[in-house]
Amino acid sequence: MEKDLKENIADSLEIDKILIPHLPYLLQDLWALGSSPSKYSRICKKLNLDKNSRVLDLGCGKGAVSIAIAKEYDCNVKGVDAMHEFIEDARVHAKKNKVGKLCEFEVGDLNTALQFEREYDLTIFASLGPILGNFDDKIEKLRKTVNVGGHILIDDGYLKDSVQTGKSGYEHYADRETTIKLLSKFGDTIITEVIYTDEETNKINYEFLHLIEKRGNELKTGSPELLHSINNYLKRQKEECEFIDEKITGAIWLIRKNSD
After folding, report:
1. How far is the C-alpha of 174 from the C-alpha of 159, rounded, in Å?
2. Whole-prediction pTM value?
3. Cβ(150)–Cβ(120) below 8 Å
4. What is the per-residue pLDDT for 135?
5. Which secondary-structure segment (H or E) carries 112?
């Protein structure tokens, strides 16, 4: 894996670089990796996707969302993710789900992909954090990938109150009103907003944390030299769950691009 790509993964996941080769083990029990394929699929019913549609799934992980969209709408989906092992899993799952010919999965840096990917009918980006910058930077980059009249689906969140947070990676978050303004800054239309309940967010985060902790403890037993790094990773994961629970409301936005 290229050095800068490895550093990007480490930064975005807040993980020591020494643990990157062990991420597939730590996350082996998670296919959707925090996203909600069924929610996305329901939201996309508004779009009349069909066999002529092109969908881009940025940060596709193991392909859960890409595969769900391809199965439901018989459309062509390209998934991009920085983790080679995730992409291999995605290809295997696509074949098992009989959409191998509809799904293309590629290893790559997301910001690099955004410079070249164009003319999609729908681009999906599901990620908390600043990997694509703040909200107006993020939407500016994403909207270049879709045709006029095409759509962007963003799964992210906003502050529960207007108090800015100093937590690393969350400095750019704002309250809902400000976030909506930033997402529609270029004259696009938010046609759907789905708000996660606190109960949904809590359930997802802590179920995932439990599974990661289980695999982390197994890894520590077999690789004691990783003890410090794993403990730090698990500590940060727990702190992030607590922070999101307290400060962030999760939301999905479906945005129509109205002009270039």
Report:
1. 5
2. 0.94
3. yes
4. 85
5. helix 110-116
